[in-house]
Write a structure and sequence with these properties.
Elements lengths: L5 H20 L5 H15 L12 H20 L2 H14 L12 H22 L1
Helix pairs in contact: 1-2, 1-3, 1-4, 2-3
């Protein structure tokens, strides 16, 4: 039976997700690949999981199965030359252990901020 190295898989995902994002921004990337890339990146960065993480064992299944499956499907749709260049660019982002382009974190912060605002608004509407 083949042993899965989760640390290695996590490091691969740390490079693959930005590579998919970089590929998505390239004008040479086909439309279908861009749609899958958008779905993949949105799922990877989403604060909401298909199966919540607090559910024992099942909570992390989506991170172990769904995300790699989305990445695999997306990569198959992106032309090899485009994805290879994006992969090189992605590896350079993490060269010193943290992303050089922290601007990629802005959409995540905006999503969290909007969710918090919506919760606060709904809470005050319910109370009043």
């Amino acid at each position: 039976m083949k042993k899965i190295n989760f640390k290695k898989r996590a490091q691969e995902l740390k490079i693959m997700i930005p590579a998919v994002f970089i590929s998505m921004k390239k004008k040479e990337t086909p439309l279908m690949a861009k749609l899958f890339a958008t779905l993949t990146v949105a799922y990877a960065l989403s604060p909401i999981d298909l199966i919540p993480d607090f559910i024992p064992i099942l909570g992390y299944l989506d991170d172990l199965i769904i995300l790699p499956l989305l990445i695999t499907c997306t990569v198959k749709l992106i032309p090899k030359s485009i994805f290879d260049n994006a992969l090189i660019e992605s590896k350079n982002i993490w060269s010193d252990g943290k992303p050089k382009k922290w601007i990629y974190a802005v959409p995540i912060v905006v999503i969290y901020f909007l969710i918090i605002i919506m919760i606060v608004i709904k809470t005050f509407q319910f109370v009043v």
